[in-house]
Amino acid sequence: MGRTATILRTTRETxxxxxIDLDGAGKTDVSTGVPFFDHMLDAFGxxxxxxxxxxxxxxxxxxxxxxVEDVGIVLxxxxxxxxxxxxxxxxxxxxxxxxxxxxxxxxxxxxxRGSLHYAVEMPIEIVGTFDTTLxxxxxxxxxxxxxxxxxxxxxxGENAHHIIEAAFKSVARALAEAVSLDPRVxxxxxxxxxx
Length: 195
Prior knowledge:
The strands form three sheets. The protein has a four-stranded mixed sheet, covered by helices on one side. The protein has a four-stranded mixed sheet with strand order 5-6-10-7. The chain has a two-stranded antiparallel sheet with strand order 8-9. The chain is built from four helices and ten strands. The protein is an alpha+beta fold and 195 residues long. It has one domain (4-179): Imidazole glycerol phosphate dehydratase, domain 1 (Ribosomal Protein S5, domain 2, 2-Layer Sandwich). α1 packs parallel to α4 (160-179) and α2 runs parallel beside α3. The radius of gyration is 16 Å and the shape is globular.
């Protein structure tokens, strides 16, 4: 049995099913009805080496907020479930990813205490039809529900598409490192004995 999970969540605003394999090869199947967000989630799976299926429908006639945030909730919950008791994981991971002129750092601690610390300025509010403030909303929901401490900092960037894409890729790569198994780690990597 691998480190996999499938989570279904239905509300009056969204209907979401996500399947994840933490030990995948980066195969993705993503459909949220928000094209730029689909592009970012595809990059997230591919660069995090996560096999990821995300099928979401939401009240896009209102805007994309509920869909984006709820995908973060469900994806975070799936990551937490797939991690199981967290035995043998590296726990920490970090990555700095350039995307043309943009440069973004992400650092992850699978701490059990979900929080986002976000220092990213956006030069514009819309990319395609995507409200750029929703990138932060997604990451808040992801970190909170996965139980991870997540830092995301942009050191450079003028193009919002590049900044957001570098953020998603850096988070994915940092997460891939943190969830990876280290044969030298016995049990849970914590002085407390639990995460």
